[in-house]
Amino acid sequence: MYMQTSQPKNKIWEVIFASSAGTLIEWYDFYIFGSLSLIIAEKFFPASNPTLAYVSTLATFAVGFVVRPFGAIVFGRLGDLVGRKYTFLLTLLLMGGATFAIGLVPSYQQIGVFAPIIVLLLRLVQGLALGGEYGGAATYVAEHSPEHKRGYYTSFIQTTATLGLFLSLGVILITRLLMPADSFSAWGWRIPFLLSVFLVIMSYYIRIRLHESPLFTQLKAEGKVAKNPLKESFGNKENLKMVLLALFGATMGQGVVWYTGQFYALSFLQKTMNIEFVQSNVIIAIALLLGTPFFIVFGKLSDKIGRKKLMLTGMLIAAICYYPIYKVMDNTVNITEKTEIESKRTVETSTVKQADGTEAAKVIETRLYDDGTKIKETSISKAVAPSEIKKEVSLGLSNVILLIGLIFVQVLFVTLVYGPIAAFLVELFPTHIRYTSMSLPYHLGNGVIGGLLPTIATLLVFQTGNHFAGLIYPISIALVCFIIGLIFIKEKPVEKPENVEQVVKETV
Q1: Confidence band of 373 (pLDDT split at 50, 70, 90)
Q2: What residue intervals traverse the membrane (predicted)?
Q3: Same domain, 222 and 207
């Protein structure tokens, strides 16, 4: 079932701004955790096994994605019963409160096992809130949009996930650059979490001034609001078929492409390639900034040529290109193809005091190569334990530019699949159960299947010792989704205004 609506042009931009601002803040809140995963692993998990701590952090991060479908059910039902506006006001406050609280949780050294338990519970709240946010924002914007511009207008909501990640990286980088590395590691990492409370208050003020969606208001006035959105969404055979098609033919492929091109790329730079913290975040941030406008480009294009073509093209190209892209990325830190400048090698030794009061020998060896690459290896030798070695790689300008380009290409894949998908999902379902029906497949595909990608991919790499084993997961999911979508998704005919009078009515 499709919908027709018309709004004054200034009104639709007010709706887009308010909806996008709130959704951006929610994504920012959600992704700070992933962006700081290496530091969080050190603070909230036992230090005895760094690898296990990192995997545990990724698993805690993934929990937020796993519960998103439950948030979609709870808040989707609420949105179809009570309204879009008040539901995504509630999700905004829950997300902001949980994020602020993570910034206050004491470390593992201070409260032991309670630290990861509290963080896990707060991630559950974040996941539930985000599960209700996206469907509400996308539905709200779509129900204010003229049909032939729905892909264009909803694409602004699609930018918010990437911009939220970009904002989280930006705030983290600024905080890190304003203080010594030791201070950031000790307490400065909490600042991005604590700042979220001010962003949430600002966004809440913007959203509270909005009116309810005109289509939902009309349904309510006519007494046609769903009495049981869950039953009507998933108990109806035809609607359930659309829910499953949305999941297996669109959102799960979109999910793995999104998380590979942005989050796994960051994880690969930092954990597999050992790229220095600031440099790795700068590389991702620049690539995201360059790629973000293409969400709108492809959203608008989907109004002209259809949603299916763009989404499936993005999945197929991504699946084909991931392996060669990541192989080239990994090769930038391959020292067998570099020449060391022997005269630039330095070794520094010192004695450091450990948390348990004992002393350990600390050795920092720095090597410089002809292409500008600098490798710093820090080893701490303890009397009663094996030496801990931390490797940090800083690349020269040419390799940094190459990595930005390679990740930018991955972001383009993301924009192809993600730019049109809000309009695609909205158009699948009738107004009275739209919030519930579209939220569940989106959060199963994007949240669970896509959100588990960093954890599953990292485990595959650790288990096999192969840098590229993690790519098996997104490539296989994207190909399966491409095939299902190609066979079963029926492209909605491109809608065009019937006459000039309609255009004037919808845009003036």
Answers
A1: very high
A2: 12-33, 53-75, 87-105, 111-131, 152-175, 187-206, 243-265, 277-298, 310-326, 400-428, 440-462, 468-489
A3: yes
Q: Are residues 447 and 315 in the same domain?
A: yes
Q: In total, how many domains does the chain have? A: 2
Note whether 234 and 374 are same-domain residues. Answer: no
Nearest to 63 by CA among 141, 26, 118: 118
- Neighbouring residues of 412: CB distance < 8 A, sequence distance ≥ 6: 291, 294
- Distance from C-alpha of 445 to C-alpha of 246, rounded to nearest angstrom: 9
- The domain in which residue 30 lies consists of 9-333+396-497
Measuring CA to CA, which residue among 111, 77, 151 is closest to residue 434?
77
For 424-473, how does the pLDDT look when each residue is reduced to its tens digit (9 = 90+)?
998 888 877 777 788 788 888 987 898 888 778 888 888 898 989 999 99
* Residue 202 placed within a domain: yes
Encoded tokens for 212: 């309810």
Structure tokens at 349: 């030794």
Domain end (from 378, 394, 410): 394
Residue 502 lies in a domain: no
Interatomic CA distance for residues 77 and 438, integer angstroms? 11
Using CA atoms, how far residue 160 sits from 29, 144, 249, 416, in Å, is: 12, 18, 23, 15
| Distance (Å, whole) CA 392 – CA 269 | 11
- Rounded-to-integer distance, Cα 58 and Cα 419, Å: 27
Q: What is the pLDDT of residue 499?
A: 45
> Average pLDDT of the chain?
83
Residue type, 83: G
Looking at the structure, tell me whether residues 369 and 461 fall in a common domain: no
d(CA 98, CA 115): 14
Q: Are residues 98 and 129 in the same domain?
A: yes
Find residue 351's DSSP bridge partners. 361
391 φ, ψ (degrees, to nearest 5): -105, 135
Q: Hunting for tokens 């309009």 — which residue is that?
A: 423
**Residue 307 lies inside a defined structural domain of this protein:** yes
CA end-to-end distance (rounded Å), the chain:
26
CATH number of the domain encompassing residue 265: 1.20.1250.20
Is there a single domain that holds both residue 64 and residue 30?
yes
The Cα–Cα gap between 22 and 203 comes to 5
**Is pTM, for the whole model, over 0.90?**
no
Indicate the residue among 394, 413, 430 that finishes a domain.
Answer: 394
Question: Residues in the chain, how many?
Answer: 508
| Domain assignment present for 4 | no
Q: What is the pLDDT of residues 5-45, one digit of tens each?
A: 445 555 788 888 877 877 787 778 767 877 787 788 888 88
Q: Provide the angle, in degrees to the nearest 10, between the axes of the packed helices 421-428 and 434-442.
A: 130
Helix, strand, coil content of the chain in percent (nearest 5): 75, 10, 20
Q: Which two tokens stand for residue 169?
A: 């990286």
346-353 and 359-368 beta bridge pairing: antiparallel
Alpha-helical (H) ranges within 36-113 are 37-44, 50-66, 68-81, 84-102, 108-111
The predicted structure's pLDDT at residue 75: 77
